[in-house]
Every structure is written in structure tokens, then in C-alpha cells.
Design a protein that fits this description.
Structural class: alpha+beta
Strand order of the largest sheet: 6-13-12-8-9-10-11-7
Number of domains: 3
Number of helices: 17
Radius of gyration: 22 Å
Shape: globular
Order of helices and strands: EHHEEHHHHHHHHHHHEEHEEEEHEHEHEE
Strand content: 5-15%
Largest sheet: 8 strands, mixed
Number of strands: 13
Length: about 450
């Protein structure tokens, strides 16, 4: 019997909810109406606080080609862009009103309605934008690189949007504000409050609880920031773009917007996830059921919290203490049988054993091939284990990784595009960086000796 091959596109440390929502919109009828296609099935395996997300390889390849063709055609992109902008406004309005709520005074039914509202806002927003960049962005960039026949350096320059990502904005503001505070031209308390309101969501992710408050930014503003995170080259960029035709300029614009959407999504969803957690913390206080248990329940299961607390605690404890797998089809999610889970995991393990790791070269550094020791860093707290000359292997990086990144020889990430934090910092530091490997943290372990080829974008264990 022919074995299924799988495409592994995410591995991250996370609890169950709201991460499982991703499997809904990636397979739902609503997403299909917007984009013309969805994944036939999407799987997530949860084990010891980590999640593995994958689908069948043939399904991914087919849908990737379909979305790419839509991205280079007329009509599709403008339509989804309008919907994305509309959904962003809805999220901003919800958060503005939510922050005025006194959750301790809200009844259970209304708290549950808020949870469902947060889920609906996330699904509506993700249904509009994620499929385009998740399935089509890499292929669009590959197409443009071949079509335009530019050097890699020039192509990276025009494919990187002029609009800064949130992390880059923050790092540049820290540089400016720190200098102004030292010169007596800005109040540190006001600056810290502003930065917390605008960027405090960055480290929250799916589960929190880390949120950068005013005190965090007061401490950061007292540090030294000698240079900007990324040296811009507007004149060179403008000159390259001036030589392109109208159709190519439009495709570059779309690629830039898709890159921004990957970053913007964190801003809109992380803020919603934080509000979801705030409600769960309130439920934890009221019903004496641990936050982590609430995180391992489907949103709809929470409706029974008042009457079936012990039953839900048992269900969630079982998910916390034992690995499990979910399968989503047509937007409907179910936990698969143990037999099917073991069969799929066996095939996955066999498929990725000894697999070369391939991604996008964000920065070559000063040579083509490097050797070093891998250090898997899944959170900034693990940065201390990075020694001079090690390679950081991460799902993604953020400003709190900077100290470790300064010591490292280079960076390999599962996620990210040319505008991600790791890519920007690598170019600033002139260190080798391969991004978007999907599986680096799955394959590599602390202490592995690796070879990093920045000509081919390949990482190998040696």
C-alpha cells in the first residue's frame, strides 16, 4: 500500500487553544469561498507543550500552485486585500471596547460570548489573509527572482517592504527614544507607556503570559542602543524599481504586502489571544480550574464549565498528560483515534529522519559554507546556552533574542520571510541566516554539528 507523504509547515511550543483554530480556517468553506481552495485536511499533533502542524504533501503542492496562479492574475489580490482591511478595523474596535470591560463584573454567559466573539474575529481575519501568504508567497518570490534576473542582493532589497515590521519599528524607536531621554528631550514614563500600548503584545504569542508592560520598557530605555536595527537603502531600491515594467512593479507590491501581512497577523491575533487568556484567567479564579486546563479545551467545550467542571477537568488533564492529534476537514475539527495517530506519526518520523533542512537565504554572511554547533532556542529564556560561534535554531526570533544573537555565528529559523526579525538582524550583523525552513527545530538538537550552505539555503547534520 502506498504511504502518504506529509508536508510539515509548523512546529512550535504552544498549548491547545487558540492554536487549534488554525486548522479550522485552513480547511473551511468560508476560506474556500474567498480563495477558491483550501487544504483537504490539516493535522496538528500536541505533545508536552509542543505542536506539530502538517498536511499531505500532494495536497500542499496542488493548493500552492493554485494560489500562486491567482496571485499573479488580476482581481483576486485586490478583493482579499479589501476584506483584510475591513477585518482589521473590526478587531481594533473590539479591542478598544474590550479594554473598557470589567471582566470580574461580567456574567458567565457573557464571558462565553466574548470567547466566541474572539474566535470568530480571528477566523474571519485569518480566512481572508493567511492562505495567500502561507501557500503563495514563497512561490511568488521564486517566480519574481527568476523573471527579473536580478542579483540576490538587489532582489532582497526590493522584496523587503519599505514599511517596517513591528519589531523593526520598535527597535528603531528604542534607539531614538533612548537617545532623547538621555538628552532630556523625552519623558521616560510617557515613552514607556506608549511603547507598551503599541508593542507590548509582541512576546505574547498564543499563550502568554509574557506581556511587555511599562516597567519592561523603562528598563529597556535605560539600556544603550548605538545603532538602528536595519540600514535602509532607499535610493538603491528606487533605482532598481525604476527599471521594472508596470506588471512587475504590481507583483513586487503584492509580494511586499504579503510579507507585511505575515507580520501584521501577529499584531492582530496576539492581541486577541491575550484577551482570550484574560477571560480564561477570570474563569480560573471563579471556578478553581487551572488556566492550563482551560487552554486544553475546545472553545465550545467551555460552555459547560458551570455544570460539568469536573468532567472538563478530566478531559483536559487527559490532553495535558498524553499526546493527541486533531484532524480538520471542511472546518470541522476532531481528535483522531490512537491507531491513526500512531500510524501517521510513524510515517512522519520515517519521512523526516536524516532530512536535509532547506530554507530561504536571508543573509549569506562573508562566505558560502559554515560549520558550527546547533543550539535550539525555543524562547528568549534559553538564550544563555548560546556560546560564541553557535548557530541559533529557533521557530522565530524577537528583540529579546538580541543578546544571544550577538554571540551566535548565525541563525536558522522555521518561520519567517525576508522581513522577519531574524532576517533583518542577520543583514545588520552580516551573519549567515536561513529562514522559513519549516522543520529545523524538529530535526536539529542541541550539540549537533551542522554545515550551513548559504549558496543553496541548506543545513545538514555532519
Amino acid at each position: 500500500m502506498k504511504k502518504d507523504k506529509y508536508y510539515l509547515f509548523r512546529e512550535r511550543p504552544t498549548l491547545f487553544a487558540p492554536c487549534y483554530w488554525n486548522s479550522i480556517y485552513q480547511t473551511s468553506a468560508k476560506t474556500k469561498r474567498l480563495h477558491g481552495t483550501v487544504l483537504d485536511a490539516q493535522y496538528q499533533h500536541y505533545n508536552s507543550g509542543k505542536m506539530l502542524q502538517f498536511c499531505k504533501l500532494a495536497d500542499w503542492d496542488k493548493k500552492e500552485k493554485y494560489i500562486f496562479k491567482k496571485l499573479i492574475a488580476r482581481g483576486y489580490f485586490d478583493k482579499i486585500d479589501k476584506i483584510v482591511q475591513r477585518q482589521k478595523k473590526k478587531i481594533d474596535l473590539f479591542i478598544e471596547n474590550f479594554d473598557k470591560e470589567e471582566l470580574s463584573r461580567v456574567g458567565f454567559k457573557d464571558l462565553f460570548k466574548l470567547l466566541k466573539k474572539i474566535k470568530a474575529l480571528c477566523l474571519d481575519y485569518d480566512s481572508a489573509n493567511v492562505m495567500a501568504w502561507l501557500l503563495g508567497s514563497d512561490k511568488l518570490q521564486e517566480y519574481l527572482f527568476k523573471k527579473l534576473n536580478l542579483s540576490e542582493e538587489d532582489f532582497n532589497l526590493i522584496i523587503t517592504p519599505e514599511e517596517k515590521t513591528a519589531v523593526s519599528q520598535l527597535e528603531n524607536k528604542l534607539v531614538i527614544y533612548s537617545k532623547e531621554i538621555k538628552e532630556g528631550r523625552r519623558d521616560i514614563n510617557e515613552a514607556a507607556k506608549e511603547l507598551s500600548e503599541d508593542y507590548g503584545w509582541i512576546p505574547f504569542g498564543y499563550d502568554g503570559p509574557v506581556y511587555w508592560d511599562k516597567d519592561y520598557f523603562i528598563k529597556k530605555l535605560n539600556e544603550s542602543f548605538p545603532t538602528q536595527a536595519y540600514k535602509e537603502k532607499p535610493a538603491e531600491r528606487k533605482e532598481i524599481l525604476s527599471k521594472l515594467n508596470v506588471n512587475d512593479l504590481e507583483l513586487i507590491k503584492r509580494a511586499n504586502i504579503l510579507a507585511l501581512w505575515t507580520d501584521e497577523r501577529k499584531k492582530y491575533t496576539f492581541r486577541l489571544y491575550r484577551r482570550y487568556s484574560q477571560i480564561l484567567w477570570e474563569l480560573e479564579k471563579r471556578y478553581s480550574i487551572p488556566y492550563i486546563n482551560l487552554k486544553y479545551l475546545f472553545t465550545e467545550e467551555l460552555a459547560g464549565l458551570e455544570k460539568n467542571k469536573e468532567k472538563l477537568k478530566k478531559i483536559s488533564n487527559d490532553r495535558i498528560n498524553n499526546d493527541f492529534m486533531i484532524e480538520a476537514k471542511k472546518g470541522i475539527v476532531k481528535v483522531v483515534s490512537t491507531i491513526k495517530k500512531e500510524r501517521v506519526l510513524k510515517e512522519l518520523t520515517k519521512q523526516f529522519k536524516g532530512t536535509d533542512i532547506k530554507g530561504i537565504v536571508a543573509c549569506k554572511g562573508f562566505k558560502s559554507v559554515y560549520k558550527g554547533i546547533a543550539k535550539v532556542v525555543l524562547s528568549p529564556k534559553e538564550g544563555d546556552k548560546v556560546k560564541e560561534g553557535d548557530f541559533i535554531i529557533a521557530t522565530m526570533t524577537s528583540p529579546d533574542y538580541i543578546l544571544a544573537m550577538k554571540k551566535a555565528a548565525g541563525f536558522i529559523t522555521d518561520e519567517g520571510g525576508m522581513t522577519c526579525h531574524a532576517a533583518i538582524i542577520a543583514r545588520e550583523m552580516s551573519k549567515p541566516c536561513i529562514i522559513g525552513t519549516k522543520i529545523a527545530t524538529k530535526i536539529l538538537r542541541d550539540g549537533n554539528i551542522i554545515e550551513v550552505n548559504t549558496e543553496k539555503g541548506i543545513v545538514k547534520k555532519i
